[in-house]
Recover the amino acids of this structure.
């Protein structure tokens, strides 16, 4: 069995909605584009037809990709400590303050499918991701980066 894809409930819901949209309206829309392009004449030199077929192939690839992810999805929940504070788990958004900086940076610890518009994704297998997993607000964590050893303070976990 393939490895489970750890997703937050929000990411699972978003990917499920995208899959539903592509599998229904997306397929209908692309079929309409292909049909319209066929009516333009000779398919061997029809750029609209070839573009629509390429778009269809990409969409079908995305449908297969999403299906595999969702078929092997494991929903993860945020872990809370005894004091009610959140600990960093897959899918957590973490604000960290680098030593010497004044402004915290936000990261999502997880996979690209968890991405959010305003947050950089950090892989849980990266040095920073590994160091952040299990930490809580107020913790200082250290990790090796390409620029050398780094130390960050966990400011907020959500």
């Amino acid at each position: 069995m393939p490895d489970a894809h750890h997703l937050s409930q929000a990411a699972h819901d978003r990917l499920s909605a995208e899959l539903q949209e592509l599998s229904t309206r997306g397929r209908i829309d692309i079929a309409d584009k292909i049909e319209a392009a066929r009516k333009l004449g000779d398919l061997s030199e029809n750029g609209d037809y070839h573009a629509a077929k390429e778009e269809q192939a990409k969409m079908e690839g995305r449908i297969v990709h999403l299906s595999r992810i969702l078929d092997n999805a494991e929903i993860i929940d945020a872990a809370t400590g005894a004091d009610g504070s959140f600990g960093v788990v897959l899918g957590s958004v973490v604000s960290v303050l680098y030593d010497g900086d004044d402004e915290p940076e936000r990261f999502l610890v997880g996979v690209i499918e968890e991405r959010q518009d305003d947050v950089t994704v950090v892989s849980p297998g990266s040095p920073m991701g590994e160091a952040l997993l299990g930490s809580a607000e107020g913790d200082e964590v250290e990790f090796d980066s390409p620029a050398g050893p780094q130390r960050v303070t966990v400011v907020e976990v959500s």
User: Anything to note?
Assistant: The mean pLDDT is 86. Residues 22 and 60 are 8 Å apart (CA to CA). The longest helix spans residues 9-38. The first strand starts at residue 5 and ends at 7.
